[in-house]
Every structure is written in C-alpha cells, then in structure tokens.
Design a protein that fits this description.
Length: about 260
C-alpha cells in the first residue's frame, strides 16, 4: 500500500475515560522507547510554509495531493535533544512520511543549507537520512518556506494487540504560537491553547479498519472529521481565514 489511512474524531474531553476503556481490550500502550518508555508524551512541531501560505490554503481547499514540512521534537529540551525533519505527504486517502533525525543543536546550520556531509550519517537505523534531509531542504527553499506555526500537544498512544499496524492516539491540550524561531520548539509560556474542552482521537493503520473499532464508532456515534492541527493552530490567532498577510509574515518571521 502507498501509505497508511488516518481517521480523526474531535470529541469532548469528558468522554475520554469511556473511550479509553472501550479501546483497552484491543490495544496496549505504545511506549516510545526514546521517550522514557512512556506512552504519554509531548509532541512539539514547527511547521514551515511559504509567505503566501501555500500549504495552509491547499489544506483549506481540500486538495487530495499535498504535503507539509515540519521540525518535530518531544517532551522537554536537553543538551542532546534530537529532532526530526519531516515531510508529511497526503495522496488521496493515504498518508506517508519522510523522516530524518538530526541533533537539535545542528538544526539552524542544516536548514541554512550547511554541508550535509558534516551532519550525516547520524544514526545507522536511518540509512537514507542524508537523502531525505536533502529533499526537505529542496522543498523548504523551493517555495521560500519559513517557520510559520508552532503546535504542541499531549499524546497518549496505543498500538493494536492483534495487528501492530493499528494505532490509536488521544491528542489533548493542543496549543500553538505564530512565527516561532527555530529556538522556540520547546517554548511554553507564549503558547495559546485552542483545543482544551475537546481532544482528537485518531485511528491509523496500513490495513482496513477492524470491526472492533467500527463498533466503537457506532457505540459513541463518532463522526470522522478533517482536522489539521497546523491549520487550526493558525486560525486560532486570526479572526478569519486569510487575515494572515504576506507582509505580516515577512515582518514577524524570525527565520
């Protein structure tokens, strides 16, 4: 298959415990081995977009083939913090990612176009890291993308007991900040919460949705929604779509 399928549901926070209990017989905690062996952690992403918000408007237009560029980190910053350069691709119903790990302290030099041979290979388990980093830089420079929006949230992750391709996540306390600098990935004080009374339930898999999850959908009367944390993170700071102008972005961007 060309990728995985994702289904998203925006649900009131008061239903979280009941939903967690409903999925419990079919999943186990998806402990992130790089994040202190916990299935609950903070995800922090700086999204890059063009001055005219190309990726933002393509999502609003509902284009079936599109991409987003982001730098993603986890939890809190340390001297050895690792982050990932990601291109998230959407091809009709399918989602795929090009993911490249780098040292956070090297991010500015790499994104400025530094010699990649100085930074790769970095991890042996990512043999195509240099190639994917080069692809990220190509799309970054092609449309003059800059850091546009920082989105941070708490993720509670589970993996299917019967099929490890199945993944269920609860994303809550979603907050954002406009025009971050690269040094703001782990910022907290300036974030604005834009989803606090609801959370996002996601089901992701490379396989057809199993019957057990379909039963949960019917039981809780869930409605699949298109939900982009990046787009909602921008909308939270403006009265209406399109209030963000090119002049504002150029004058306020730190990159």
């Amino acid at each position: 298959m060309p990728g995985r399928q994702e289904s998203k549901y925006v649900i009131p926070v008061y239903a979280m415990d009941d939903l967690r209990a409903a999925v419990a017989p079919y999943v186990r905690a998806d402990n992130h081995r790089a994040l202190q062996h916990s299935n609950i952690y903070e995800i922090r992403s700086i999204y890059f977009d063009s001055f005219d918000l190309k990726d933002y408007y393509e999502k609003h237009a509902g284009l079936q083939m599109r991409k987003k560029l982001r730098m993603r980190g986890y939890n809190t910053m340390t001297e050895e913090s690792e982050v990932f350069l990601e291109i998230k691709w959407k091809n009709n119903l399918f989602i795929s990612k090009d993911r490249t790990p780098i040292k956070y302290k090297d991010a500015r030099a790499i994104l400025a176009g530094g010699d990649l041979d100085n930074y790769f290979p970095y991890r042996k388990d990512f043999p195509q890291a240099r190639e994917k980093a080069s692809k990220f830089l190509f799309y970054l420079k092609r449309h003059s993308r800059v850091p546009l929006n920082l989105v941070t949230y708490t993720r509670e992750a589970y993996i299917g007991k019967f099929n490890h391709s199945d993944r269920v996540t609860f994303d809550s306390h979603i907050r954002s900040m406009m025009y971050p600098g690269l040094d703001d990935l782990f910022e907290e004080e300036r974030l604005r919460t834009f989803l606090d009374r609801e959370f996002v339930l996601e089901y992701k898999s490379e396989n057809p949705m199993p019957e057990w999850f379909k039963k949960i959908i019917r039981r809780f009367n869930l409605r699949k929604q298109a939900f982009s944390k990046y787009v909602r993170g921008i909308d939270a700071h403006y009265r209406a779509v399109g209030d963000c102008t090119k002049r504002e972005i150029v004058s306020m961007s730190h990159y």
